Batch of 2 targets.
Target 1
Amino acid sequence: MPNPLLTVLRNHAWKNKHENVTVTAESFYDVFNLWADAPAPAKNDWRPGLQGLRAVVADAERREKRIRALGGAWSLSEAATTSEVMVNTKGLNFVELGFRTENVDPAFGGNRAALCFTQCGVSVMELYQFLEARGFTLPTGGASNGQTIAGAVSTGTHGAANQLGSMQDFMLGIHLVIDGGRHVWIERKSRPVVSEAFCQRLGAELKREDDALFDAAIVSFGSFGMIHALLFEAEPVFLLERTLERHDYADAKRTFSTLDLASVGLPDLPFHYEVIVDPYHTGNGQKGAYVRSMYKRPFAAVPPETSAAVSPGDDAMAFLGGVTNIAPDIVPVIMAHVLGLKLPEKKGILGTPGQQFGPTDSRGFIMSIEIGVALPDAENAIDAVIEVAKQFPWAGFPAIRYVKASSATLAFTHFAPTTCTIEIPSAGSDRTKAAFERIWTELHRRRIVFTLHWGQCLRPAAVHFPSAYGDRVPAWQAARRTLLAPAGQRLFSSAWLEKLGLA
Amino acid sequence: MRRKQSRTPSSATRRGHSRQRASIALLCALATASLVSCYHYRVAAPQVSNQNEPISVTKWSFFWGLLQEADEDTSCACLNNGLKETTASTNLAYVLLGVVTLGTVMPLELEYSCAKPPPDGKWPNPPPAAQCGFPVLPVPSGGAPAPRESSDEPCAPTAPSSTPSGAPTSPPVVPNDPDAGDF
């Protein structure tokens, strides 16, 4: 058998896309769907990539190093990092749509033509392009498309699909490379999809004894092994009709815990409902709430929107953070201008999900947290964020969305039936960091139970875990122990995981 | 008798203070901008994804461009693929260096990332391992799939088996046959 092609950098200094996480990794590998000593396969193929991951994992295990997989470098947390072995998986971008009958379990009740096997390194943008060219799309995605599918799913990325859930919630199978040279295909017992023949073709052990292992592994940020591939059922492509209107904050506030949208002029709950709040302009007549709605429409070909000729420079966010550190009084003026420019009112813009959730042009030093709360607590939690902003202005704003509760054990969107998510993208600065601390303290003061998105900035200590996750943490750890031997648990851990008390 | 000063500043004083604060903020802003910012110029293929993390190099040009560093060879880094994005950056120090040396020394920072073929594309043949120093790690035995056989035939032209409800009848761009692929 040929050897998989790998590249490696030693003592490589790495930083994430948003420049708030840096690490120097002893070994930084790139893996590809290529052989080192054989010609490139006739078309993109998954075999060399799987063998490459197995080789890198086995080598780390032999040398007693810890290993983390890296996707789109999109996470603002340290989920993807270790100072030992990091593996860039972006080169693994094989996708296949449609399964033959012999590869599907007879009990599978879905559409085998829509089953999509995707390698870990496929970006969400690539998936949209691939699927939408074939008359399908993702059931739901994140707000932008730079993440890899494995990174997005394993950190619990979500959009605003209030009837569907987060990205992990439409996944049906996960293929993990684990310790001891093994690789396993995990599914829910209650939702069998693939056949033994499929697992034999992949060379993987099938694990389908219960639902608990899948629910724990699907949001585990690389801690159950290295994700090689995922399986989901794609949805026939559709359009989303996007409207953005400005309303007074008081009108938007009435919707926060009720999802009764009459006060913002929406007849019913759309596929995507989002409110971006200018926390410094919440008075009557100030139109400080930017309400974005998207309704599902039948598919028709539509041209893509054109982008602006001039946009903020790469260092604009670092600059903004630096200025507001020194002169916080100017934050309200700046935020009003930034939001007004970035969020112009628009009505009835049609596009496929891939067109609506396109590339983000935000670059530079950005920090962001995302808070998850139960729907009844939403109004109080958003109020807490605005209260902090008024007392301690910083260059950031809350964006509020709603997601159906996730079945993943450690999903930060686990509040049933609906989780309200409050994302707070901000210019990177010490002041922003201090503001995040104040927000967490204020949420505690108000006795609001909250979670935090695993792919965004997290609290240095997991002090909110007991109330936020209850017995979910021990259940997740127990599932991890059933899959990995102690050496394997260490292999797929990191300082970040230990800091959170999850290792 | 001295008049007792009011604790509340007059509106003129307030205006003066706020002007002073605005001036300080502006000065701070300018100082911060000059320290943290660079000038960036980018060529990008927005619909293409990158296969690797960005690679940075500093290139030097001398004597008004009469002498310059060799081209950056990306064949090993990009495995013979093209580029997804290139960013050229300069900063205050580089600009000053150019001015002080009357243009005889002009550095520029380049950052690039490599493109990857789309999921239904084909990777080019990579450069020889010996040329690029690719490491070879043993693959664990067992549980390994055989290298791909010659099952690379194109998909048969069959329409997808389901379409969105109420969708117009315009044909999808690429037909998809669930029986034609690997699985």
Target 2
Amino acid sequence: MVVDILFYGFTIFAILGALGTISFSHPINSAISFLITLLCIAGFYSLIDNPFLFIMQITIYSGAIMVTILFVIMYLNVQKEKTFFAKKIFFKIVGAAIILIPFIYIFFDSLNKYKADKVLNKGVIVNIENIGKSIFNDWFLPFELISVLLLVVLIGVVILLNKKGERK
Amino acid sequence: MMYIDHFVAVGLILFIIGFIGVIVRKNVFIIMMSIELMLNAVNLILLSFGYAKGSVDASTIALLILAISAAEAAFGFVIVINIFKNRQDFNINIFNHYKGD
């Protein structure tokens, strides 16, 4: 019962936050709405017995990425937007629907394979220990590649923000 | 009783909202936040199916996606800052300037 109430509460706030993200005209308001959505998604992770991703979602997304977004918005002193929507918005929405409808169909088709009697967890505990074993046994190469990617991003950011001509 | 369908439906709704945000809006910041929203929705769907199958691999992949999205946010905002320094605008149409002839 409590789980149901939590689920519907998270759902309502996640969807409202997502709608606010794409409909506010000032980016700060959008960022705060987006923060609400991120926290609700962290709540979903806790509902599906995933405490590690719950912590990671709050630390990385709600912490690091949101601080980056808010810092850049405030650093650049972004004002309200004058040109709110793109041109020919109707045609773009129709185009988006045409692109998305096959995906939605595939989604609900694949959901039929997960009927209610199959969705019960088979007793696998997702904790830090198991995730660590999974990373260092099965996903070692992607893990190392991501560390290389983060290094490349670090160097690229420093180079892009420190152009020679602007250093004076 | 919760079913996996509900989580997947929420993830799908969030993904569609993010997609519409990318297409409809003009502000670079909101487009980047919509992309992050789509990544989050995909993560949620992945973890829901992982929960249904009782697999740890889904959590690992979600963790890697988190790292990639952090890198993407950092790099994307640096590009935005550089373009703003040159052109003083946040409209996504400034990228048309870089289109070839």
